[in-house]
Amino acid sequence: MVRISPAPQEDWTEEIAAYVTGFRSAVASNVPEEDRQPGTNLLGTLARHPSLAMVFLSFNRHLLAQSTLSIRQRELMVLRVATLRRSDYEWAQHVILADRAGITADEITRIAEGPAAPGWSGIDRALLAATDELIGEGAVSDETWRVLSGEFGEQQLMDIVFTVGCYAMLATALRSFDVQPEPGLVPYLPEHTLAARSLTSRD
C-alpha cells in the first residue's frame, strides 16, 4: 500500500511547480525530453512537503549537475546504494542513467554482486567498496581511502561521501513512503522484483 500518495500536478503549489521545472532543466542531459523518465510519483510525493522538497532537490541537483565526479562514477555508487538499500525505484531510475553513461549490462549485473566481483578496475572497486563501507559502517575505511585519495582530490572525495549519503537517504524515503515506479520504469526493475510482479499478476 502506498503510504503517502503523490500529489497530482494540478494540486502542486505554484512555487513547487516552478521549482521542479527549474530542477529538471538544470539536470537535463542531451536526451530528448520525450525519452526522459518523468519521475512523477517521486516528485509528486515530495510535492506534499514543498519546503522540504526544495531543500532536498537543491542538494540533489548538485550531485546530478555539478558534481566533480564523472557520471559513470556517480552511477556506479548510486546503483550499489540501491542494491544495499533494496530500493527498486532508485535502481530502475539509475539503470537508465547508467546505460546512458556507458556502463555495460555486464557491469550493471556486477554492481549487484559488489566490489569483490571480478573484472572491476582498481578505482571502480574502491568506489563500490567505499559505498559498502559508508552504508555498513558509516565511514570509509583507511585502506579504501588511501586508494581513493591517490586518484581523487578533496572535493571529489567529498562528493563521493555525499553521493552515497544522499542516495541512501532517498532510498530510505522511497521505501518508507512506498513510492511506486511509473510505467516507464517497470522494465528496468531488478529481476527478482519483475518475477514477483509477474507471479502477483497471474494470481
TrEMBL record:
Residues 54-132 form the Carboxymuconolactone decarboxylase-like domain. InterPro entries: AhpD-like (IPR029032), CMD-like (IPR003779). Gene3D superfamilies: AhpD-like. This is Carboxymuconolactone decarboxylase family protein. It comes from Rhodococcus chondri.
